[in-house]
Sequence to fold (317 residues):
Amino acid sequence: MEKKESVKVLIIGSGPAGYTAAIYAARAGLNPVLFTGGQPGGQLTITNDVENFPGYPEGVNGPQMMMDLQKQAERFGTKVIYGMVTSVDFSSYPLQVTVDEKDVYEAESVIVSTGASAKYLGIPSEEKFANKGVSACAVCDGYFYRGKEVAVVGAGDSAAEESTYLSKLCSKVHLIVRRDEMRASKIMQQRVLNTPNIEVHWNTETDEIVGDDSGVTGVRIINNKTNEKKLIPIQGFFLAIGHKPNTDIFDGQLEKDEAGYVKVIPGTTKTNVEGVFAVGDVADRVYRQAITAAGSGCMGALDAEKFLAAKEMEVAH
Fold:
């Protein structure tokens, strides 16, 4: 293990939340150091077109937007390091963060922005047609399927929500439900069942997503009671089987909810550890949008700035 320099604001993760926190912290003269993680730029780097982020009237592609945010953060003095935080020790102060299992950084404050990853079914055709008809975000990508037929896989509130959202844009929505009932709340289920252009396929699993060079053209489903297979022609396939927050490295360090999201004091980004702030999708199980992540990144930097100013006052006295 190699001891590295001490850092005032250390940011873990490089999506819109992490970069926005970096922009604010850097402009406040706090010399933030940001570690990109294994997927620099986060989930938006696997999104082709972002059309709902204010300020881009023509839309912007996800990777380009992340490069813009990185440049902006670096312009004000953020040090961006391509590295993966592999463990943390928040039991004493200053806080300790280990990068790539070898470099140990001491930090006066830490902003956690490790995000959450959409859960996938694990079939090869998902990867093959990623961004060519396969999506894990109806709010982000539904617009591209106006007037077309799509399928949604899932049975919880997010599947019900995404199906209902898509039903307003698409000619027909096929909801693929593994069991003979949904897990979604009663009110969400009613909404689905009362929407004429949503067809629910019960006791059904996805066998394969099919398509050609232009993208997804259909989904082959299999009835898990009768083993009967059926091909449904669709142009879009949406996964709504949940997200997994990237919080494993904080086990035993930060308080989390039952789904693994970092708990924060409502109205702030403060965690149960003094000096540690959580921003973006790692603490947000409701909205999960680039713009809400960026907003919370700003909050995290301001909370960290306040915390550090109070610490300095303590030392001065």
